[in-house]
Write a structure and sequence with these properties.
Largest sheet: 2 strands, antiparallel
Number of helices: 14
Order of helices and strands: HHHHHHEEHHHHHHHH
Strand order of the largest sheet: 1-2
Amino acid sequence: MELALPLWFEVGSFVVLLLVLAFDLLIVFKRPHIPSPRESALWVSFYIALALIFALLMLLIGDAEHAGQFLAGWLTEYSLSIDNLFVFVIIMGRFAVPRKYQQEVLMVGIILALIFRGVFILLGASLIASFSWIFYIFGAFLLWTAFNQAFGDHDDEGEGDSWFIRFARKRLKVSDQYEGNKLRTTVKGRRMFTPLIIVFLALGTTDLLFALDSIPAIFGITQSPFIVFTANVFALMGLRQLYFLLGHLLEKLVYLKYGIAFILAFIGVKLVFHAMHENELPFINGGEHIEWAPDISTWTSLAVIVGAMAVATVASLVKLRISGSTVADAIHGDDEAAENETTVEAAPAEAAPRTNGTEDPRT
């Protein structure tokens, strides 16, 4: 089904989203601080409510199919963004980023994610329009990603430099200490980069890797570039506040990766079925469409996505409770250390060796 929404609605949506993002960005750089749990919860709730209102508008202006595709796409991208957020937690810890400046760093990471996803959306839409068989590749890629997500070795995640970070560290002159949120500093008369440049490069490479997963995943739900892009924007909104709200609870959600893997596998299978329906490859079924392949509806996809994330989250919280920890302990366990960290504008020199890259934890 080819979706068509009024042009005024699409243009108006982009304008409003741009204004919201600009306002969020302005707050971060004008008032750098550590958000309280209450403040973070209010912002996360605001962005979730905004996404639901947008879905309601799509239902009223478009139809139930529009709204269903947006909700399924938004939830899929939100789950993948939480996975992305977990890697951000690792990066912040490894680079010893002062907590006071983590808001700015996170905002840069989110902006980079939007840019990379926007580029991949344009490329994906172009490929889909030209080559229907690309769904076979998208589906196979998601199935491989799901397997690696669920069964890959994550014991050493973040322990070594990525090749790109190693290359950057050899080519860039990087100081041992942070200088607030500055990228450049002067050390003994020499102009150098602060460790913040390496943090940004690590975030950028991480965002690029996650964009490779997220875009094929959502194209398995809808082929509307407008819905794909808005679902990604809404999924990234509030991610910064979610980071401060959940804290190290993300590390305790041990079954979350299985829920995400199940969603990716499900969408991968759906993409393969869709490719079979649209099949034009001469060496598959003589180039004819494969009619027996099931057609998975948008609402079935939405139910599977919600169910997978709910089961994974509840199972993780149950295990956390059995282990004797509480959610509050998991969220605030390192708050005292974090508060101590904010009293220092620069990271100590001995922390410099921690300024290295991180691999995608799913590879």
